[in-house]
Design brief:
heterodimer; B: mainly alpha; globular
């Protein structure tokens, strides 16, 4: 296939395997990807909570729209393209390089109007990085990460593997991959309107990963779950404690909205 | 339900829905696990993103975008192409998008020149002399690649650096195979001519 001349070929051969990422870089990017996936899930839960509240007539329509917009932004926001910053390797923040990380499919509805996109798809669909070798999906058909892609009705809870008794892991970086399914299950419970089950899953996470890489996300999810549980006296305390301890978390606004806390 | 679709990778495993004893026994193709795909493709993606011209400061973010998309879409992977081709397609589109937004928007990347590939630190314990030679070659290849336009650079990198076949490249780029051959021929000629010019200039300047 269009072989190069010998000189050019020799040059190419000599550098083909020269630039390699370090193991540290490989591990760091993986942490960022998984943390971002976890953040997108929790933010999606927050949005689902806001939606339910609005549907019950408790919240105002305006609040829902704002919550959706904020959550879409946080969710990895096709609109704004959240990226995990280099400085927050296990966290994720919205970055000003929004367009650089926004969907490649610029014409996709999410790219221009996340608020009017289908709720679940909008909130659980991270930026579309590009077309794939398989036929590109439409944004409207995108599925939340933890839902059944076959379009089946909500199914019975799935016992998370990470909840099984196991020896405590050592460091938070090592646990990230194990933590994610557990938070994913909690997110699914929140999405299905089962805050009690979500809280028990989050308790399991706290017990197994007290200082896990996703501890901040767990606390945000706890606050969201508590706020969804009617009459939970700990809800406000949970939410305020989270806002106090993690003021720079991208989940702050989600928690504030879901728990009807006034901005500072 | 017209056809079985695989679940997202993170939902698979013991205790998952597919292990239900009441489920009919049938061969359900399962998508590859994210962690396996990551391990297999990370280095390729990293290298390709760099070679397609993403500035060093942005490489990590672009690679992150690639694998975030892989993570999200893996459950939809249907095995019509190889995983490698599928991931490469995502990577190429991510680089294109980065390039467009870099050109369109004010950003730190806009004024930053593309990072020469020779700035990559040596990571395999070469001697100082070998390292210097490698840097010179990387700098030269980088300069030659920059002389190609984006379309030609893509096919050239995929064909000659990543050693992919024309049909694979056509699939990645969503192009006709003949278009790929044509573009590759032009890229090859331009690359070789640029190399000849560079060597002629070096010879004229002398040692």
């Amino acid at each position: 296939m269009n072989d190069l001349d010998p000189k050019a070929q020799a040059l190419i051969d000599s550098i083909r395997d020269t630039d390699r990422p370090t193991r540290h870089e490989k591990a760091r990017v993986k942490r960022r990807v998984l943390a971002r996936a976890a953040g997108a899930m929790i933010a999606a839960s927050a949005s689902a909570a806001s939606t339910t509240t609005a549907a019950a007539g408790i919240g105002s329509a305006k609040m829902v729209v704002v919550a959706v917009a904020v959550s879409a932004l946080i969710a990895g926001g096709a609109a704004a393209g959240a990226v995990v910053s280099r400085q927050h390797a296990s966290r994720w923040v919205t970055a000003t390089v929004s367009q650089a990380n926004a969907p490649v499919a610029a014409s996709a509805p999410m790219a221009t109007s996340p608020v009017v996109a289908p709720m679940t798809a909008a909130l659980a669909t991270p930026p579309e990085t590009g077309a794939s070798a398989t036929p590109p999906e439409t944004v409207g058909s995108a599925q939340p990460l933890a839902t059944d892609p076959r379009g089946a009705p909500p199914r019975a809870p799935i016992a998370p593997r990470a909840a099984a008794p196991m020896a405590p892991p050592t460091t938070s970086q090592e646990t990230l991959e194990e933590e994610l399914p557990l938070l994913q299950s909690a997110q699914e419970a929140l999405r299905l309107g089962e805050p009690d089950r979500a809280l028990s899953l989050l308790d399991a996470h706290a017990k197994r990963f007290p200082a896990g890489a996703l501890a901040e996300e767990r606390r945000a999810a706890r606050a969201l779950a508590a706020c969804r549980r009617t009459g939970d006296p700990s809800a406000r305390t949970e939410a305020e404690a989270f806002l106090h301890d993690s003021p720079s978390s991208p989940l702050v606004e989600s928690v504030r909205k879901a728990c009807a806390l006034a901005p500072p | 339900m017209s056809r079985a679709r695989a679940l997202p990778a993170l939902e698979l495993g013991p205790g998952g829905p597919q292990s239900s004893p009441s489920a009919p026994i049938r061969a359900v193709p399962q998508p590859p696990r994210f962690h396996a795909v990551y391990d297999d493709c990370f280095e390729l993606v990293w290298r390709t993103v760099r070679r397609l011209g993403v500035p060093n400061a942005a490489v990590e973010d672009v690679v992150q975008e690639v694998f975030f998309a892989v993570h999200r879409k893996l459950g939809d992977f249907e095995g019509r192409s190889s995983v490698k081709t599928w991931v490469f397609a995502i990577a190429v589109h991510a680089v294109r998008h980065h390039r467009r937004s870099w050109q369109r928007k004010e950003s730190p990347c806009r004024t930053a020149p593309e990072t020469p590939m020779d700035e990559i630190p040596d990571r395999r314990g070469r001697s100082p002399l070998q390292e210097a030679e490698t840097r010179d070659k990387l700098r030269l290849v980088d300069e030659l690649l920059r002389s190609l336009d984006d379309d030609k650079r893509e096919v050239f990198v995929l064909a000659h650096l990543e050693q992919m076949t024309a049909p694979e490249i056509a699939e990645i780029l969503s192009e006709n195979v003949n278009t790929v051959y044509s573009r590759l021929r032009a890229a090859k000629e331009e690359f070789e001519q640029a190399l000849e010019r560079r060597r002629a200039n070096d010879a004229w300047r002398g040692p």
